[in-house]
């Protein structure tokens, strides 16, 4: 607590074995590799990284590295941090499931705000993620929930990706997020990324609000879809749901059947 960890040749903080630790209210900056590295040599679980300023590290601000297919197993709580100006990603997670990423401010990292590879059953909630290449980059990740985040002025708000024909990213829930002014896509779903659910989000002023190359992704929950700033339909009966569907490009099967309607300018619904 309350340390300044800076200008180390390698990492600011390295944890290779240990659980139930708390790293809080530190300034971790200008380190030669990562700001904080959790590296699996033994069991690592139930650690907290909170209320730190993590900036200007050469590679990753925070790295959870379960290399060689060994998990850094779960219930790490990464919350309330400011993560900025890191040389690659703000947060990188590899083979580390069952984590909580909440209420962080993540901006102006050279690549991705949060990059998760082979990470299942995690919750990403309440983060403000701006001015990165990808706000979140998901690579072969299943059963995660992304909710109540702001993705603004990134190139991609969220990119969901699959690395090979044997893999997929599936059964993720994306709900109650704001995608605002991202310069390429608000949300991009790659091929073989299937059975994801996307509903009650606001897509506002992204160059392309969403693009779905996958199959069987749901863009509504059966009664409510998403708010789209480029929706051109009407709401004649004034029930708050557009009277025509919103076709998610590329046109050919991805449909929001219940697009949320808002009169007037591009103001997101309550």
TrEMBL record:
<feature type="domain" description="Periplasmic copper-binding protein NosD beta helix">
    <location>
        <begin position="1"/>
        <end position="52"/>
    </location>
</feature>
<dbReference type="Pfam" id="PF13229">
    <property type="entry name" value="Beta_helix"/>
</dbReference>
<dbReference type="InterPro" id="IPR007742">
    <property type="entry name" value="NosD_dom"/>
</dbReference>
<protein>
    <recommendedName>
        <fullName>Periplasmic copper-binding protein NosD beta helix domain-containing protein</fullName>
    </recommendedName>
</protein>
<dbReference type="InterPro" id="IPR006626">
    <property type="entry name" value="PbH1"/>
</dbReference>
<dbReference type="Pfam" id="PF05048">
    <property type="entry name" value="NosD"/>
</dbReference>
<dbReference type="InterPro" id="IPR011050">
    <property type="entry name" value="Pectin_lyase_fold/virulence"/>
</dbReference>
<dbReference type="InterPro" id="IPR012334">
    <property type="entry name" value="Pectin_lyas_fold"/>
</dbReference>
<dbReference type="InterPro" id="IPR022441">
    <property type="entry name" value="Para_beta_helix_rpt-2"/>
</dbReference>
<feature type="domain" description="Right handed beta helix">
    <location>
        <begin position="54"/>
        <end position="203"/>
    </location>
</feature>
<dbReference type="InterPro" id="IPR039448">
    <property type="entry name" value="Beta_helix"/>
</dbReference>
């Amino acid at each position: 607590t309350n340390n300044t960890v800076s200008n180390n040749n390698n990492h600011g903080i390295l944890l290779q074995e240990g659980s139930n630790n708390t790293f809080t209210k530190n300034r971790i900056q200008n380190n030669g590799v990562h700001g904080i590295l959790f590296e699996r040599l033994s069991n690592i679980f139930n650690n907290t990284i909170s209320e730190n300023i993590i900036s200007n590290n050469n590679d990753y601000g925070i790295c959870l590295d379960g290399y060689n297919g060994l998990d850094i197993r779960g219930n790490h709580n990464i919350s309330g941090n400011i993560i900025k100006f890191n040389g690659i990603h703000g947060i990188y997670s590899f083979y580390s499931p069952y984590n909580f990423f909440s209420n962080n401010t993540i901006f102006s990292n050279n690549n991705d705000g949060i990059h998760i590879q082979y990470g299942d059953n995690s919750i990403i909630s309440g983060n403000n993620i701006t001015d990165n290449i990808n706000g979140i980059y998901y690579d072969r990740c299943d059963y995660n929930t992304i909710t109540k985040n702001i993705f603004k002025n990134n190139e991609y708000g969220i990119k969901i990706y699959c690395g090979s024909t044997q893999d997929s990213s599936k059964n993720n829930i994306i709900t109650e997020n704001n995608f605002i002014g991202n310069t390429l896509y608000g949300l991009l779903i790659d091929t073989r990324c299937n059975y994801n659910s996307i509903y009650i989000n606001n897509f506002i002023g992204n160059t392309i609000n969403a693009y779905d190359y996958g199959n069987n992704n749901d863009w509504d929950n059966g009664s409510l879809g998403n708010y789209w700033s480029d929706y051109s339909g009407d709401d004649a009966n004034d029930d708050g749901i557009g009277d025509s569907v919103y076709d998610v490009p590329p046109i050919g099967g991805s449909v929001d059947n219940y697009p949320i309607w808002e009169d007037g300018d591009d103001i997101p619904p309550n």
